[in-house]
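Closing statement on the 2-deoxy-2-amino glucitol-6-phosphate sub-project.
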Amino acid sequence: MCGIIGILKKENSELSDNLVQSLIDLEYRGYDSAGIAIVHNSSIKIEKCLGAPSQYMDLDRFKKNIGEEKILTTVGIGHNRWATHGKPSISNAHPHLDCGGDIAVVHNGTILNYESLKENLKKQGHNFKSDTDTEVVPHLIEENMKKGLSLEDAIVESASLLEGSFGLAIIHKDYPKTLFVLKNGSPISIGISNEMFVVASSTNAILRYTDRYLVLEDGEMAKLDAENMSHNIFKYKQPARSRLYKAEQVIEGILLEDLSKGDFDTFMQKEIFEQPATTRSTILGRTNTEEGLAVLGGLIDYKEKLRNIDNLYIVGCGTAYNAGMLGKELIENLTPINVSAQIASEFRYRKQNFSPDNSVFLSISQSGETADTLESLKEMKRKGFTTLGIVNVVGSAIAHESDAGIYTRAGTEIGVASTKAFTAQAITLYLFSLSLARVHGMSESSGISFIKELESIPDIMKKVLENHQEIERIAEVFRDIEKIQFLGRGIHMPIAYEGALKFKELTYMEAGSYPLGELKHGPMAVIDDMSLSVVILPKDDLFSIGSISIEQIKSKSGRLLVITDEEGAKSPVMRLADEIIVIPKLNNPVMYPLIEVLPLQLFAYYFAKQLGNNIDKPRNLAKSVTVQ
Ligand code: AGP
């Protein structure tokens, strides 16, 4: 949610090109507007655009306005916006300036007390040009400098007045060799090479330049100096500002090719088709087939705790929550453990009845940054719970805060609508369920066959994806529908929810999702010949009962798309379906969710494509939601 970038180089260069490229790398974090600012000939020069920088940032115009073919500079900052305070507009796009135009600031996060700060600053004569919370920051710094403070002191003084969350990058027209960075609640990493510093909300935007980086913690500020390529990091609230020495880290788990679409039309399409490979990578080295065990190194210190739990909370948002619901179905199916799967934004504010003594808290997150999930985790830590995380982004806040966890190894996911991260979360939950089941009564032979089936999933996924043209055709068949609902029972229910979420995100159409048996208790009212019911119904022990719902939908003239396996497809009830997507038959029905989600991802993808929607960047959304 908003992406910030700051680049400081030893030597003059065409930095604006780098800034824009980095904004493109960070575009998934916000794309309703963008901007860059550089220090050039002792003044701040700004260029902004409405919409995604990859499409709308006009560097030729920038160069023309400045009157130079090559704009050489040593420092600059940039920002991709996902609007929270004030609508998307050029004046609300970052960077924001002080009255004198000397100081430029980019910000990721929310300044909670900005209204009172703004009121005071206005009384002191400051002139505001945007509706954003961010704009108070350059004015505060300006005000403090007017009082005689140095730039560094003015930033420290201003930061101490801010409440809320922020990642900030700050430049001043008179300091072309200095870049200031602050962190409180929003992620910031500092990439380091011999020639440059690159400050970014995510290491994704650093990797292009270097794989060495430092992580700022909350309450820390860094002064980066290009004169001698030095950095001074300190706690900005501590008067002594004692220098903190941090170990450099190496960026892991991201490849530069993850940041490009390759031969695919969109990142989402690429990520859908990557799932056989990412699934393989999630499983790799995490099974002991001879003994039917899951080998989860990250949880090794919590083996005893997990052996003795009676209850488990699983918490996440959106897709991660849907994976959590699937985890609940699985774990309750395979073990005697009670599982409460909850949406993080609700969980935080609810009374929770499990005790830390015999329960564990598990959060799920692709980004590892989602504010609601992170705050739920912190709250459960305060309450004394053991906290585990299933996280994709290595070293992210949730990974960092959790007592222990499992990385999902899906690689970088750029498409805002999650696909490979979901299947990686699901596979991780299957491994986690197996580890719990094996200490709660599952036999060795069942463990062995569970692993064998799990390891066969990547090849089966490949087969399912080979059917993509058929799914594209089916999306065309239903092009004229006015309403849609996704339905599934038991272990298929979370997949119905995930199918509906994908469809909504990409097509902008409302999509219902219900347990199949709930249909007759209300959702049936919407069924008519312009409605499509997507029913997930492979041949398992709920097939017969599910077939009744198919009859009911058809009796109300509803249109019907069924996802079933080769066995289910032979059933006479399937004659009622307008279209059927057939997936391979599995020996262990508990594994169906891992493959039945793929046609739903493709269906949403092709449906949105024919509408001409922006697949990778659906309107109003952002990849990581770091506001509450
Ligand atoms: C998924 O398609 C969504 N974009 C969204 O629901 C997402 O899963 C949710 O915001 C949670 O994100 P996280 O996994 O990064 O915590």
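The two ends are 11 Å apart (CA to CA). With this model delivered, the sub-project is considered complete and its resources will be redirected to Aim 3.
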